[in-house]
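Let us work through a complete example step by step.
Step 1: write down the sequence.
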Amino acid sequence: MNVKKESALKQYWTAYGGWRALLSSPYLWCAFLGTFFCYSFWTKEDFLILALSALPSLLGFSLGGYAVWLAIGDQRLKKMLSEHTQKQSADTPSDFMKVNATFVHFIILQIISLVYLIFLKANSFSEIILFFKQFYVFSDCLIQFIKFLSIMFYGLGFFLFTYSILSMLAATFAVFKIARWSDMLNRVPENK
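Step 2: predict the structure and record it as tokens.
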């Protein structure tokens, strides 16, 4: 068996579908629209409380669900999902790896979102600005620019949070696809 030595991150990204899959994801665009339409919610710091209370539980549930996914299925199912058709090259990710990549993408999004939101909650940027404002005269233009950046950082946090939640749908549908395949496989009698 000739297996290339690639980083796990590169293997995941290839199995996920890369930039093309990311940019064509309806979940990404729904998160973007949701962020746009919920402007009045995420411009206040209150959304951080909601996000930071929900994400750790979701992340734990996601990791547990991924572990269950890896543990289910008999060897026939796993072999069927890992097989390549004659049209596929050996470098093409199998269905098994595509489902794993969906879960990994979902979990990575949750981790990035959680870390980013913790940073947003814990940063002292506004206090630093106030400290320096005592000693230096900031122009109104600079203060407005800093406020704008602050709002954009909150917007990015809300977008990541929303996208990580919407990605649960992709992971759910991937598991449902596996359930359908498992059902089809179980309907075929095993050769004895």
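Step 3: interpret the result. The first helix runs from residue 8 to 16.
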